[in-house]
Specification:
Oligomer: single chain
Distance between the termini: 8 Å
Structural class: mainly alpha
Order of helices and strands: HHHHHHHHHHHHHH
Radius of gyration: 24 Å
Length: 313
């Protein structure tokens, strides 16, 4: 068990090191002078020179890389050019909407996908199964921003049940803020439930034909016990995998949804940073999202060890 944990932790460290290197290279290979790109066409040579000095772009490349790695290791992601504050502070201030949007979206996706996928596998070949497969294919093809616009038009504009945008001001009660997240969470959750549904159905179909399932049925075990205890337990590995992947995709996919619903989250911050050419914020957000992605995969690996002891060997 300890050996498996150490191997996965070591792999996670290597991946994070590669991510830091790639982010460093991306900023340095930007066409033209990065400082000039950040400041725009109206910048004077003096402004560009001052920014290059502040960002350490005049130092040798290896020295820049070493300083960048050292800063990242101690949690310093740089200073935002336009916000005038550390990137970590800017990201932390925008983290709450993105966190709860991702959390509610994955809860909605799992709540839809698990029972529907299991029931579809149990009723394989029936009209219900065919409808589920068809709807899942359609849902997987629907852009979340388009579904978000439909939800805004229907439930915010026409019915007035939910806010169309925003997250409330600083003094807004927490429950009211969560009220603002219902529509964007549904938009992301429904779209991502399609992938989890298809994987759940496929995983269940693989195990429902196994000998131990037929043996359980022959011993008189009820349908619910056979499906939930014997089949679902052994189908959890691919299901956990796709749920973990969906969480990581939700973090990255929140960019467009937050823009559609006007949520002041990390995704919206990244869009603004791109428009402003605020490279410190962009590279800081890339590092954070990549770190979250790696940590989610590490957590999924830990769940593997808990769910299936065979993975430990």
């Amino acid at each position: 068990m300890l050996s498996a944990l150490l191997k996965r932790a070591g792999g996670m460290v290597v991946v994070l090191a590669l991510v830091v290197t790639v982010v460093f290279v991306i900023v340095r290979v930007t066409p033209g002078d990065p400082a000039a790109v950040m400041l725009g066409s109206d910048a004077t040579p003096e402004d560009i020179a001052a920014l290059r000095e502040r960002l350490g772009l005049n130092a040798p490349l290896l020295e820049q890389y070493g300083r960048f790695v050292f800063d990242v290791a101690r949690g310093d992601l740089g200073q935002s050019i336009f916000l005038g504050q550390p990137v970590t502070t800017a990201l932390a201030a925008r983290a709450e909407p993105t966190f709860f949007l991702t959390l509610f979206s994955i809860l909605i996706a799992v709540a839809i996908a698990l029972p529907v996928g299991i029931l579809s596998a149990v009723k394989r070949g029936t009209a219900f199964d065919q409808i589920v497969v068809g709807v899942a294919m359609i849902a997987a093809s629907v852009p979340s921003f388009w579904l978000g616009l439909i939800l805004i038009q229907t439930f915010a504009v026409s019915l007035g049940w939910f806010p169309a945008s925003g997250y409330g001001g600083p003094g807004t009660p927490f429950l009211e803020r969560l009220h603002h997240l219902v529509l964007p969470a549904v938009a992301l959750g429904v779209v991502n439930s399609a992938l989890i549904t298809r994987f759940t159905r496929a995983a269940m179909l693989d195990v429902l034909g196994e000998d131990y399932v037929r043996t359980a049925r022959a011993k008189g075990a009820g349908p619910g016990r056979v499906v939930l205890k014997h089949a679902l337990k052994n189908a959890l590995i691919p299901i956990i995998t796709v749920i973990g992947l969906s969480i990581a995709l939700l973090v990255a996919g929140a960019v467009v949804t937050e823009t559609v619903f006007g949520l002041p989250g990390v995704g919206n911050l990244v869009v603004q940073a791109v428009l402003r050419r605020d490279y410190p914020v962009i590279q800081g957000a890339l590092l954070v999202v990549a770190a979250i992605y790696v940590l989610i995969n590490f957590a999924v690996d830990m769940l593997y060890l808990a769910v299936d002891p065979r993975v430990r060997t």
